[in-house]
Amino acid sequence: MRSMLFVPADSEKKLGKGLESGADALILDLEDSVAAANKPAAREMARAFLARHVPTKNRPLLMVRVNALDTGLTDADLDAVVGVRPDAIMLPKAEGGRDVSHLDAKLTAREAVAGIDDQTIKIVVVATETAKAVFSLGTYEGASPRLSGLTWGAEDLSADIGAETNRAPDGRHTEPFRIARSLCLFGAVAAGVQPIDTVFPAFRDTEGLTRECEEARRDGFTGKMAIHPAQVPVINAVFSPTPEAIAEAEAVVAAFAANPSAGVVNINGEMFDRPHLTRAERLLKRAGKR
Ligand code: COA
Ligand code: MG
């Protein structure tokens, strides 16, 4: 997944626009973008939308962001949508692998009742929304076979720690948030799941978004969340492996294939060793080449 577009689930118009956005995934939101009074209506709209679109071909992945486990709203959110088989549930304000195991159990019970195969529905976690959560980023490995991605959030974390802002005047995240970002990346890779970069709220600033996407890709994130359809093409472009990157990766794989016992190879005067091979194989997998 390169791009994941948030769509407030109580907006019929945005649900429709989301489908046409070109996003690899839509995140139907029942949490922060939906006011408390609208939650029941949003659940119904999410359910109807999924019932209509999950069975169709050539659609984006469809996930639902439920309310956090400590809100008392999660069960009603899940009851509304599990039967219509969303591809994944996004869990906000998670504080470690135990929260994922907890959600896994809730999903297992509901899948059984609905006659859906166990572990059909995956889990993506927003893993840095509280200070406590930041200290549990190393606990996601093995939490659930459903876990398929970890992402991070700077907005709720700012509120939790009392930060005046999470970005410096140049638009880049300030130190506490860069730490959360890095730990999310390490935590995702340690757990063997996709590291997904957070949202860029200034949705008219294409230059700023492009820079943030490029920095995320540079560091190892393989996708980014969006809040506005205009952000989707930018994210898709930056996270699609370029023909040059694919050609280089193919050259690395070919060089090691030609020298199966070599730990290190020379390609046009540059050293490539096993970590380069791993990186090349990963890139080709993402590009759909293997
Ligand atoms: N998904 C689908 N469609 C969206 C959209 C989204 N996230 N954001 C905007 N659109 C639609 C608008 O409805 C509008 O449609 P129209 O041309 O038919 O009127 C069009 O795209 C252009 O939108 P624009 O006028 O530029 O912005 P807006 O003022 O309507 O919306 C936000 C701005 C921020 C309110 C909106 O982008 C939004 O709701 N984003 C998602 C917020 C969210 O989910 N946050 C939680 C995660 S952090
Ligand atoms: Mg939030």
Describe this structure in words.
44% of the residues are buried. This protein is an alpha/beta fold and 290 residues long. The chain is globular and about 65 Å long. Helix 10 crosses helix 11. Strand 4, helix 4 and strand 5 form a beta-alpha-beta unit. It folds into 2 domains: 237 residues, TIM Barrel, CATH 3.20.20.60; 44 residues, no CATH class. The strands form 2 sheets. The protein has an 8-stranded parallel barrel, surrounded by 6 helices. A two-stranded antiparallel ribbon has the order 9-10. It has 11 helices and 10 strands. Helix content is 44%, strand content 16%.
Q: Whole-Å distance between the termini?
A: 16 Å
Please report the total strand number as a whole number: 10
CATH class of the largest domain: Alpha Beta
CATH topology of the largest domain: TIM Barrel
- Average of per-residue pLDDT values: 96
What binds here, in terms of ligands, is: coenzyme A, magnesium ion
Number of separate domains:
2
What is the overall number of helices? 11
**What would CATH call the homologous superfamily of the largest domain?**
Phosphoenolpyruvate-binding domains
Largest sheet: 8 strands, parallel, barrel
Oligomeric assembly: single chain
Helix % is 40-55%
Radius of gyration: 20 Å
State the strand order across the main sheet.
1-2-3-4-5-6-7-8
Q: Mind telling me which CATH architecture of the largest domain this is? A: Alpha-Beta Barrel
The outline comes out as globular
Structural class computed from helices and strand pairing: alpha/beta
Order of helices and strands: EHEHEHEHEHEHHEHEHHEEH
Strand content: 15-25%
Unreliable sequence segments = none
